Structures are given as C-alpha cells and as structure tokens.
Amino acid sequence: MDLSIVIPVYNEEDNIVPLLSELGMELDRLGRSYEIIFVDDGSRDRSFEILKKAASSNEKIRVIRFKQNRGQTAAFDAGFKAALGDIVITMDADLQNDPKDIPRLLEKMGEFDVVCGWRHKRRDPWIKIVSSKIANFVRNKLSQEDIIDTGCSLKAYRRECLERLKLFKGMHRFLPTLMKMDGYKVTEVTVSHRPRRFGKTKYNIRNRIVRSFIDLLAVRWMKGRHLDYEIEEVIR
Ligand code: UDP
Ligand code: MG
User: Fold this and answer.
1) pLDDT, tens digit, 9 for 90 and up, residues 141-197
2) CATH of the domain at 112
3) Are 8 and 72 in contact (CB under 8 A)?
4) 72 contacts 169 by C-beta, under 8 angstroms
5) Hey, which of 45, 48, 90, 170 has its CA 20 to 30 A from 223?
6) Is the C-beta atom of 213 inside 6 A of ligand 1?
7) How many angstroms separate the CA atoms of 109 and 156, rounded?
8) Does 234 map to a domain?
9) Ligand 1 atom closest to Cα of 151?
10) Residue-wise pLDDT tens digits, 196-226
11) Which of 178, 104, 183 is nearest to 147 (CA)?
C-alpha cells in the first residue's frame, strides 16, 4: 500500500460526501494504491452513518469509531496505528484543506521524512488567525522551534516515523517538533486553505489557550531533556 489518508471526524456530517468526492478524484489521478481511514471521534450527528455507508460501497474506505469524543490527537493516534501505507497523509474532514495539495506534499517526500502544510493565506475568522499567529510565535520562542504553521492538519509522514511516537492529549499541535526530536527531516510547503462551509469549528480561544500552553511547557521540557548521544565505540 502506498498511501494512507487519515482523517479525524467529529460532527462533520455535511462535509464527508463532498470531501470523499474531491479526495477520491485526486487520489485516483495520482495512480498510487491508497486507503482512506476515517476516525470518527465519537460524533453525535450522522457522521458515522454516512461513513458506514461510504465504506460499504468503497473498499478503500476504512472507518474507526470511538465510543466517546477523545480529541484530535487520539483520533490521529488511532489512524496512525491502523495505517498500512508507506506514506501517511493527515487532513481535516471539514474541507478546509484542499486534496489538490497532496501532490505538492508528496513531491518533497523523497528528500524529507515529514512534509507539513503551511496555510499561507488562512481562511478563518480574524480572531482565529491572530490567536494562531500569536500561539505559533510563543510556541516557537519557548520551544526554540521555527515551524511557521504547526496547526495545519495537512501533513505527510513516512510511516516508520510514526511507529515509535508516543502521543499525549493535545500533542497533535507539536508533531513537527516531536518528529525533529526523533531525528527526522521535516519541512513545510505552502498549501491553500478554504473557509469552513458546513458545521462548526471545535476550537475556540477559551478551550485552547490554557491547555495548549501547558502542552507547550511539556514539549519544551521534553526537548530540553531529550536524550541525544552519539556512540563513539563499543567493545563487545
Ligand atoms: N476533530 C476531532 N475531534 C475533536 C475536534 C476536532 O476529530 O475533538 C476534527 C474535526 O472534525 C476536523 C479536524 O479535527 O476534521 C479539525 O477540527 P476543526 O476544523 O474544528 O479545527 P479548526 O480548523 O477550526 O482549527
Ligand atoms: Mg477546520
């Protein structure tokens, strides 16, 4: 299997069908073998019903359903563990990421282990754009990092890079840093971004700011205390 597309879904009933048609078209054009793994993070709308129906008529679609809503990092984790493709691509279910950008990520995959999308023209409410800019700035300062847009879900990973990864809640925002800590080569490429047409965002400043700051301190600590040694010689 060449590609696994991992997509967390939480109450995205109106987005699934249009996403599948756009994504399917793009993936078929690529001419590589693929699977699409939807991780339904305990949706309370019709998302799971729609996913089940889609999977029954298309063998490339796999669905993992959580009993309860456990957050985007947990959804990514379940998807990563299930993925069979050599390359794992993550994206949002809400059509804000454009499947047409996938080839741009793949182009860089030979040279890099992880390729992250950077939404250079973000199409979100201004408050979200500003708060996210500030968050990225603080994140980079405190964790001595230089990632421009860590929050973009559209990313591609060599699957091996994910195998040793131990994730904790909220860590999906720090995946590029965690990958670099493991010694993998990470880059960013510009991707397009679209306004959310259906459904609602799951994040606001209130539910992000405190938790993601605590998460940042954890990542800063991990980075500072990361084991980094080179063996010069071994006898016996
Ligand atoms: N999501 C999820 N579990 C959650 C919150 C979000 O699976 O607890 C999914 C959501 O359905 C979407 C993606 O994660 O596919 C990003 O969420 P959202 O679009 O709300 O974030 P934003 O783009 O507003 O930052
Ligand atoms: Mg979104």
Assistant:
1) 999 999 999 999 999 999 999 999 999 999 999 999 999 999 999 999 999 999 999
2) 3.90.550.10
3) yes
4) no
5) 90
6) no
7) 8
8) no
9) 25
10) 999 999 998 887 889 999 999 999 999 999 9
11) 178
